[in-house]
Design goal:
Elements (H helix, E strand, L loop, with lengths): L4 E3 L11 H6 L5 E3 L7 H8 L4 E4 L8 H6 L5 E4 L9 H6 L3 E3 L6 H16 L2 H9 L15 E5 L3 H12 L3 E5 L10 E2 L2 H7 L2 E4 L13 H4 L7 E4 L8 H9 L5 E4 L19 E3 L8 H19 L6 E3 L2
Parallel strand pairs: 1-2, 1-3, 3-4, 4-5, 6-7, 6-9, 7-8, 9-10, 10-11, 11-12
Antiparallel strand pairs: 5-13
Amino acid sequence: MTPAIVIPDDYPVVMGSSSAFLEWRDRVACVCFDTLPASEDELISRIQSAEVVITIRASTKFTAGVFAACRRLKLVSIWGTGTDNVDLAAAKQHGVTVTNTPGVSAASIAEHSLMLALAVARRVVEVHNGVVAGGWPRGGAMQLHGKTLGVIGLGAIGRKLARLGQGIGMRVIAWTVHPNPALGFELVELDDLLRTSDVVSVHLRLSPLTTGLLGRDRLALMKPGAILINTARGPIVDEAALVDALRERRIAGAGLDVYDAEPLPAGHPLTSLGNVVLTSHCAGITPEALEAGLALAIENVVNYLNGNPTNVVVRP
């Protein structure tokens, strides 16, 4: 008998309209909610009878309380690489396997990171707004060819960005949690990377180790002309310290796709700064990346049910 499968948070709808899901749903007993659970209690209500959950949104938090209340749950299949919305220790304690979809959005996020770097360096938003307003702003742009790109994190995304940087003529240096010279990039200490890079791009998972990694002291190491890019997770960077550095022009600019609070609250200090380019946690959302990731989230469920779990982050 097919176990009960629930997707509690498909909003905005991506899974419900994907070809992989439309083909699969005719063969399984799957309930898909196209609204976000408004509270932890509502999430529990949606998944309490489920043995398998596919979670679509990082805003849906699988806390210790959720696992304690959902005794039938055996698998949480995450669409995405990040696992910071799931209490992994609690999952393990309650006998729940957790999987994710690594690598499927790597090309999309790496392209987006390079786009943000170019947009900030070339003052694209400022110049666009000036032309639309009837002006003709010129000059003041930074050329990235010949500059140094510092990549923090050499997972699938970081490696792709490093190659893109090399492709436009940048010198690439990197720091990563698990250094491996075989990756083929020049590895340096984190503080040295911050001191020497013209563009610093963050590509780490959010964890207790990486939360606040780029705090006030480390941001102060960056060159006055440097640009910070973050398409990973907002809390890796001390947001208040970054706002101060940008406002006081202690760094040249930032390109951000992720924030401490999402959606970005109205009137947030970042929205009043002229040296930032802001996007809406959409770096990995292209049709190609979406379909590949959703298909892999389903494949992880199928493989688990067949006794051959794949892309396992936590196993009981």
